[in-house]
Please model this.
Amino acid sequence: MMLSYGKIFVASLLLLQFAACNVYSEDLLPVKIQAALLFKTIGYIKDPAQVSSDGKILIGIIFDDNMASKSYAKSIMDAVLLAKAANYKVCNSELEPVLMEYKNEETLLGNFNIKKIRVLYVITQNEQYVGGIIKCTQQAKVLSVTGLKPGESVKKGISIVFAMVDGKPAVFANDKSIQNEGKEFTKDFYSLVKAVK
Amino acid sequence: MGAGTRSLMVFCLTAALFAGNAICEEKNFLDMSMEEILNTKVSIASKKAETVSESPAIVSVITAQDIARLGYETLSDVIKTVPGVTVTESYFGYTDYSFRGIKETNYNNRTLLLVNGTPIREATNNQYWLELFPIKAIERIEVIRGPGSVLYGSNAFAGVINVIMKSKVDTAEVSVLAGSKNLVDGSVNFGKDKETISYFAGASYHKSNGYNVSALDELNKTQQLGAYAKDTNAYQNNYSNFFGNISKGAFSVNAYGFDQDKDKFGITPVHAYTGNANTQAGGMDAQYKKDLIGCEFTTKLNYFQSAYDGYLALFPVSGALSGVPMDMKYSGSNYGLGIDGYYKISDRASANFGVTYDNSQTDPYKFVSDDTKASPLAYTGSFINGEANIYSAFLDKHDTNDTSLYGQLDVMATDALRVVGGLRYNNNKDYGGAAVPRISMVYKAADKLFVKLLYGSAYRNPSFFEKYVNTKNVVYGNPDLKPEKINTVELGADWTFKNTTLKCSLYNLATDDMINRVNGMYGAGSVPLVAVLEPRGGATLPTKSSPGYANTTGEIINGIEAELRGEIYGKLLGYSLNASYKDGTEKDSYLLSGVAGSALGDKIQYLDKVTANVSLFNDIGKFTNTISASYVGERTGNIDGAPPAGGPYTAGQEITVPAFTLVNLKSTYKMNKNVDISVIVMNIFQQTVLFPEYIRRDIATIPGDSGSNIYGEVSYKF
Model:
C-alpha cells in the first residue's frame, strides 16, 4: 500500500512540475458579481449627489472597436438592466445604463455632459484609449470603474477595479484617482477594499 | 489497490453518474452586502460562487475589521467570541481552546490550526499556538465547528481554525499599544501588490508584566516558592512574531514564526507551581497553482520546526520545600507535500481530490536539572543532565509519517439541493489504514434561507508525548494508545434578511477512545485501568501511584448555537450576538482514579454549558465605538481520587467554578486619513475569572486575570 501511494505521489509531482507551463492569469469575475460590486461601491459614496441626478444614476459602459469588448459591455449592461427591472435602487436612485463606444476624448466629454453620466464602466484594454478615458473622467469628475486587468488598470488611474484574488472577489481603490475624479467614499468602504496609492 | 482506494473510486464514479446535467445554482448578489460578496468563494474552474451561508459546514468568519473593532490584542481573546468556544488557562502554562465542550488535552491538538489552508501540527504534541501570527497581519479567520478530517486529516477533531493572512495588498502601517500591566504591543505591516510580484511582511512584539497575583485568591502559599520562583511577574506572556508572503503569478510562499516567553505562577492550596516556558517555532509553505488536463491543481510544500524549553518546579502543599526544579526540553520538525485537485464534472457537479504526505520527526525528550536553583531533591537520579530521559522509549530521534488520499464530490442533486460527500483514506506508519467519511446536504428553502444537514467523522492520532514520553512518577506514556474518534451530526440554518444574518445549529457529537491522563493509572497501590506499562529503555516500574495516558470511553454532547449579526437604524448601530448551550454525558460511569467503586455517575467534568458573546458598534463622525461582553456560565466537576495529602480537598468533592462576564470598551478617533487613536478598557467591572483545572483534577481552579486593563493605541497608515 505504501509503495503504490508513494509511486502515485512522486508521479503526480513530476507530472505537475515538468508539464508545459502556461502563464497564470487572473480570471475575470462573473458579470453578475461585477455588477453587484458596482452598485455596492456606489452606495458607499459619501454624498449621493456626486453620482445621482434627478433620482437617477447614469452608468456609462464604454467599449472599443473590438468585438469582444462590445460583447462584454453588453453583458454588463444586461446585468444593470436586470437590476433595474427588479426595481433595485442605489442611494434611492434608479440605475440607468448607457452603452457607448470610445471614439475620442472630445466625444466622450460631450457624452458625459449631455447624458449626465457620473459613473463610467470601462471595457477596453487598449492602453491609448484607457489613457484618454481617464483624462476625461478626471476632467468631468466621473467615477471610473472596471473589471479588466486589475493590476494594470488601477495603476493607469482607473479609480475602482474589481478582480478575483485567491478565488474571491476583491475591490481595489486608487485613492488618488478617486480624489481626482471628485468622489469621496465612507471609511467603511476603505475597510473593505484594498487601497492602492 | 487497497480497499480504501477502491471505495474512493467507486464513490467518485457513482456520484459522477448521479450528477447528470442541469443548470448551476443562481445567486442574488444584489441582496448581499459588499462584505458578503467579498467573502464569496469563486472557483476559478467552475466560476461557481459559494458563501458562508451555503457552505456545507458550520462556519464563523472573523474579519480584520471585526478584530479591530473588538480591540483584542491577542488571538486567544478573538477566538473566544466564536459560539461554543471557550478559552482556558492551565497551570502548565498552556492556553487551551475548547470547541463544543470537547476539552483540549492540555495541548491544543483536538482542534487544528491552518495558515492559509496549510495545517500546523508541532511534532511532539501535535499542538499549535495562536501567538504564532501578528494579529494585525490577519485578513480573516474562518472557524469551522465540527469535524474536518476528510479535508485536513488528524487533529481536525472538534474544529478547524483557518487563519488567512494578508497578501497582495498595498499597505504600510505601524501601530503601538500600551497600558496596564506595562503592556507594550507594537506592530508593523508593509505590503506591495505589483503586476509582476507582490509581497507582504508583518511583525509584532508583545510584552506584558502579567497580572498581579496578590489580587487573586488562594494565595496563601506564595511564600513557599521563595527562591524557586523564577519570575515574580506571574502570567507574563511575552512574544514576538512575524509573517511574510511573496506571490508571483501562480506561485506563493509564506514564512512565519514566533518566540514566546511565558511565565506561569500557579498558586493553589495543594500545589505551588512556577514555570517558565520558552517556545520558538516557525515554518514556511509554498504553493503553486496550475491548470492541467481540465483540472485546477495546487501543489503544496510545507515545513515547520519548533523547540520548547520549560522550567518547572512543583511543591507539595505543606512541609519543607521539596520541589523538582528542572528544565524540560523538546523539539521537532515536520514537512509535508500535497497535491490538491479541482475538477468541474458538469454544470452541477465538481470534484475535489488530493494526496498528501506528512513526515514528523521528534528529537529526544530531555530533562535537565536546574543547578542554578537547587539540587534536585525528591527525584535525584531520575534525570540526567542534558540527556534524554532514560525512562523515555525514544532516546534518539523518532520519526513517523502519514499518507492520505482524499476525494470530495459536490453535486446539485436538484435546483435547490446540494449534496457534498467526501472520504479520506489515511495510512499512518504507526496506526495503519483508516477511512473517515463526510456527507452534507444544503437545501435552499427560500431565497436566502439555507438549511444544512451534515454528518462528519474525524480522528486524532496519539501524540508522541502521549505514547512514548515517560517522566518517572509524574506521567507515563502508553505505546498501546489508538486514535480517538468523533462522529458528529449537525442541523444548521442560515437566513439573511435585510441587513441581518441569523445562523442556528443543533448538533449531536459522540466521541470514542478519548485519550486522557488518568491519575493513579500505574504503580504501587493504584487501580490499573489498562495494562500496566512494561518497563523499557532500562526503566523500572513507577515507584508510586502515577498518572498515565489511556484510551478511556467517550462522551455524548448535544448542543445548540445561534449567531445574529446585523445593522439597525440605517447602519448607525451594528451588532453581533451569539450564544450556545450544550449538555452531555460520559458514555460510562466515571470512576475516581485509584478509588475502587467510586462511581461519580456520567457527568462530563467542568462542561461549559452556557456561553454567550455580544458586541455593539457604531460610527459617529470620526469616532467608532464598540462595547462587547463575553459570558461563560458556571462549570462543575469533582476532585479526582487522589488529591495530594495535606490539601483542603477530598476525593470526589464537587467543585463549582463560578460564571463570569467580561465587558470591554473600545473607542477609536480617526484624527486624519493617516492616524487613528484608540482607547481600550478590558473587564471594566473587574469580574473574577477562574478556570477549572480539568487535566489533573487534583486541585480546583486556576486563577485568571481579574482586574481591569486600560490601553491606548495609536496607528499610523502611510
About this structure: Chain B has one domain: 3-717.
